[in-house]
Amino acid sequence: MKIRIFDPENKPNSIEKQEIIDFLFKNLDQFGDERDDIEKCIDYALKESFSFGGFILLGYIDETLASVLVINHTGMKGFIPENILVYIATHREMRGKGIGKQMIEKAKELTNGSIALHVEPDNPAKFLYEKQGFTNKYLEMRYIKK
Questions:
Q1: Would you say the pTM of this structure is higher than 0.85?
Q2: Do the domain assignments include residue 105?
Q3: What is the CATH classification number for the domain harbouring 117?
């Protein structure tokens, strides 16, 4: 698999950025977010908005986009991990072939410090994350102000 990296110093053009957003929106299935929220996350990683930055990995099998992973830097250390894996998605027709594993391994190689992620309890990818060394330290609770 060929992996391409985008970050604040090497940004995608507007067409590539839209392809990333579309890919994530389509392939995150029921575990995804709205397009606007995905774009905000990408803008954060690329420092298009006030942020600590991050990076985006695109994994290709031949010429086909097979997977996208987005890491955002938190600007914190210790009590909150330095990085958060916000999105990882693999093309629906390419799942179960180790692509997600390769993407996570590359992300771990590229990050300085710890990585956190949020995963729904019924998401099948939870097992991949556990195999990659992620542990469930906390139960996340949210108050959503309306």
A1: yes
A2: yes
A3: 3.40.630.30
